[in-house]
């Protein structure tokens, strides 16, 4: 896994093309592509999660969202699951990081400050179509 850093840093109040791409950097890290190859889904108003899933489905993947840590009671899996965790960030707007074994694994922001408090949501990238995933990862 090559951990990616975000390249844009503004909050949701900024113009769409300037909004932070921490979510894209998290997806890039998990999928093994450059952050430049992932659209900045947070720049889209409205159905940005639908757009993210459409992009992932082309790669044989999809996101499943949970409120609260889905692996809290499954200790034997918790150390292996890398999830996107989101919640309040230290710069006054929502932020996404990678979470593993109940703690911060990687912050795509160069400060490495993580979140303020516990994550509010978790996204797990799930395999839908192994053939599509293998075609995309071998190119």
Describe this structure in words.
- There is one protein chain.
- The protein has a single domain (16-137), classed as Cathepsin B, Chain A, CATH 3.90.70.
- It is 23% helix and 23% strand.
- The chain has helices spanning 22-31, 48-57, 75-78, 130-137, and strands spanning 61-67, 82-88, 94-100, 103-106, 121-127.
- The radius of gyration is 14 Å and the shape is globular.
Rounded to the nearest angstrom, the distance between the terminal CA atoms is 17 Å
**What's the β-strand tally?**
5
What is the CATH topology descriptor? Cathepsin B, Chain A
As an assembly, this protein is: single chain
Rg value: 14 Å
Q: Bin the helical content.
A: 10-25%
Unreliable spans: none
| Series of H and E elements | HHEHEEEEH
Q: What's the SSE blueprint?
A:
Elements: H1 22-31, H2 48-57, E1 61-67, H3 75-78, E2 82-88, E3 94-100, E4 103-106, E5 121-127, H4 130-137
Antiparallel strand pairs: 1-5, 2-3, 2-5, 3-4
């Amino acid at each position: 896994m090559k951990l990616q850093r975000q390249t844009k840093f503004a909050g949701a109040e900024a113009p769409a093309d300037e909004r932070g791409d921490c979510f894209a950097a998290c997806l890039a890290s998990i999928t093994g592509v450059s952050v430049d190859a992932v659209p900045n889904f947070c720049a889209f108003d409205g159905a940005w999660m639908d757009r993210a899933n459409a992009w992932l489905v082309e790669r044989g993947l999809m996101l499943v969202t949970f409120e609260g840590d889905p692996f809290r009671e499954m200790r034997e899996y918790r150390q292996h699951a890398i999830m996107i965790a989101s919640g309040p960030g230290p710069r006054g707007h929502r932020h996404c990081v990678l979470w593993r074994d109940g703690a911060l694994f990687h912050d795509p922001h160069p400060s490495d400050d993580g979140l303020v408090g516990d994550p509010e949501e978790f996204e797990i990238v799930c395999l839908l179509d192994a053939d599509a995933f293998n075609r995309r990862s071998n190119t």
